[in-house]
Amino acid sequence: MAVGPDTPITQLAGVGEARAKKLTKLGLAQAADLLTYYPRDYEDRRKIYTLREAPVGQRVCVAAMAAEHPRKARIRQGLELVQLKVVDHTGALHLTFFNQGYVEKALRAGEEYIFFGTVEEQGRRRAMVNPIFERADSQSFTGRIMPIYRLTAGISNHLMASLIRQVLPCADSLADTLPQRIRQEQGLASTQFAVQNIHFPADEEALELARKRLTFEELFYFSVGLSFLKGRREGECSGCSILPRPLEEFRALLPFELTQAQRRVMEEMAADMAAGRPMNRLVQGDVGSGKTVVAAYAAWLTVKNGHQAALMAPTEVLAEQHARSLSSLLSPAGVQVALLTGSMGAAEKKRVRTALASGDIDFVVGTHALISDGVEFRDLALMVADEQHRFGVAQRAALAAKGDRPPHVLVMSATPIPRTLALIVYGDLDISVIDQLPPGRTPVETFVVREDKRQRMYGFVRKQVQEGRQVYIICPAVEERSEEELALAAREGASPPMDLKAVKTYAVQLQEQVFPNLKVDFLHGRMKSREKEAVMAAFHRGDTQVLVSTTVVEVGVDVPNASLIIVENADRFGLSQLHQLRGRVGRGRHQSYCVLITATRNPESMARLRTLASTTDGFKIAEEDLKARGPGDFFGNRQHGLPQMKIADLAGDMRLLNLAQEAAKQLLEEDPELSAPEDRPVLERVRQLFAATPDIFN
Ligand code: ADP
Ligand code: MG
C-alpha cells in the first residue's frame, strides 16, 4: 500500500482500533502527524558486541546464533516464560522472555540474530531478559542510532518506531516550505533529509544537520508569526491618544514617595500612551517592587482623559484585593472602580456590565470573566494584565478585537523569565523593569526546618502575633486535585496524600489544639467568591491572626502587617512558586520570616529549598527552576497561548533563535505580505502554526 501524508494511522500495519485510540491521544491521526512526531532522545545501538566483550549492566547489541529451540513454560496463571541459549565463537548467553509466547516460534535454532538488551551476570553465566531481536540479515532497529519517542500506556517505543518507519517514505512527497534562498544562506538541509534523519539518523552528523534544519524552521515560522503580530500593531495608528498630566498630581494621592524605578516606568508608559499607537508594554518587577501603583497611574491617566480602563488578575482573591485598594486610592480622584468576577451573582454581574456599557464605571477590576463574551465597554482604552505568564498572546489578541480600536495593553509580571523565553513569549512587547524595591525593606529571613522543629515553630507564631503581626500558613492544594489526578496518583503507586495538610481540617485543628487564644481562619480556591472576599477582608483588617490557605494567595496578595509565612510540605512546590509565596511577607516595615517545613528525605529537594533560603534574587531562582523543571512547566498548561514547540529547546537555542529572527525580519522586509510564489508556503505554515491564536491575520 502506498502511504501518503494524509493516510489515516488505522491503515498502518500494527494499528487496530484500540491502538488508534491511544495514538490519537498523542495527537497522531494520520501519517503526516507521525512524521513530525520527533524523538525525545536517541539510543546508540550501532556497536555490535561479541558475547564475551559485551559490557555488563548496559543496554547493548550482541550478535549470536540460537543454539536450541526456544522452550516455553507456564509458571503460573498469567506468567509464561520462553527461554533459550544463544552462542557465538566467544561464549554463550541465556535469554528469558516473559509473557511473549510468540518468541517460541519467532526464533529458530541455528539462525543468526542481533539481540538488544542489558547483559546481566547470573552466577557464572551471562543472561539477558526480554531483549529486542532481529534477524542478522534484516536489521532495522539494531545496529543504528535508534529514536526514543514520548509514549503512552499500550504504545511501545518499538511500535512507534515501526509506524514511523512505515510512513517515512512519504517524506519524499513533502514540499519544502522554506524559501530556497533562506535554506542556502543558512546552510540548511532539505526537508526530506531532515525528516528522515531526525527519526533514523545515518550518523551523528546527519542528526545534527536534521536537528538544525527543523529547529531553525520552527523558530523561523514562529518569528514570522510574531513579527506579523507586532507589525500589525505598529502599523496601527488608531490607538487612543492619552494626554500626559503632571506626575505630581497623581503622587498627591499616595501615602508614600515613588521610587526612582517606578517614576521611570511611569514615564515610559505615559510616553507610549500619548504616541497614538496602542501601547504593548511588559512591566517586570520582583515581588514587592510596587507594580500595582504603576498600573494605577496608567488607569488614572486613562480615566482622566475620559476613557475606561480595566485590570485583569489571575485569581479572584487578587482581583478582590486590587479592587479594594485601587478603589480607596483612586476614588478621591473621582475614579469609579468596580469588581467583576465569574462567581459574582448573576444580578450583580449584570449591574456591573450595564454600567460598563454605559460608561458609569471608569475602571473595572476582575478575572478572566472580563474578556469573556458579553462584557462590553463604552470606551475601553487601557487593559492591564497582572501576572502576565497566565495571560498570553491569545488573550491579548482577543482583547484587541474587542473595541473599535485596540486598547493600550500593560502586562505586569513578577516572574523573571530567562531571555530566550522572554524573546519568544513576549517577543511582541516592549519591556520596562522595576529594578528597585521601596525603601526600608529588610530581606525576608528564610529557614528550612524539619518536623522535629514543629512545636518551636508554633511558638514563633505566637510570638509574632503577640507583637501585633499576622501569619500565613500555606498547604499544598489537596482539595483542588481532581478525582482523575488522585486516581492517577494511586495507579502510579504514590501514597495517598494523607500526610498533606488539608486546609480546612488543619485550620480547625490549629484553632482548637494549638492556638486556642488566636483567631485562625482558612481560605481555598473552592470557596465561593463571597466567602473568599470576607476571609481576605478580615485578614486585611487584622481581625484574623493566622490564615491557613492554599496557594490562592500565591500571587500579588498584599497585607503589609503579615510578617511570617509558613509553607507546609515545602518540597512539593516549585522554587519560583515558593519565591512568590515568600513575597507575601516583607511588604511592610517589619522584619519578616519565611519557614519552609518539610519531611523530605530527598537530598536534591533539600538542596533546592536551601537555594531559596540563600537568595532573594528572583532571576537566580527562576533559572534554578528552569534547570530543574524545564521550560514546559514555566507557564503551566501552555497558558501563554502560543504554538507549542516540537523541537526547539526554549532554554537553549538562543543562537539559532537569533538567526531565525534575523531571517524572518529580512524576509518580511523584502516581501511584507508574503505574496511572492516562493514565500506563499511560508504564510501557509505560519497560519497553521498560529491557528489556535486568534486574530493574527485579519
Ligand atoms: P508587587 O510589585 O509585588 O505587585 P505591590 O504593588 O503589591 O507589589 O506593592 C507592595 C507593597 O509596597 C504595597 O503595600 C504597596 O503599597 C507598597 N509600595 C509600593 N510602592 C511603594 C513605595 N514607593 N514606597 C513605599 N511603599 C510602596
Ligand atoms: Mg502585584
UniProtKB/TrEMBL annotation:
InterPro entries: ATP-dep_DNA_helicase_RecG, DEAD/DEAH_box_helicase_dom, Helicase_ATP-bd, Helicase_C-like, NA-bd_OB-fold, P-loop_NTPase, RecG/Mfd, RecG_dom3_C. It comes from the Bacteria. Its EC number is 5.6.2.4. GO terms for molecular function: 3'-5' DNA helicase activity; ATP binding; DNA binding; hydrolase activity. The keyword Isomerase applies. Residues 272-434 form the Helicase ATP-binding domain. SUPFAM superfamilies: Nucleic acid-binding proteins, P-loop containing nucleoside triphosphate hydrolases. Keywords: ATP-binding, DNA damage, DNA recombination, DNA repair, DNA-binding, Helicase, Hydrolase, Isomerase, Nucleotide-binding. This is ATP-dependent DNA helicase RecG.
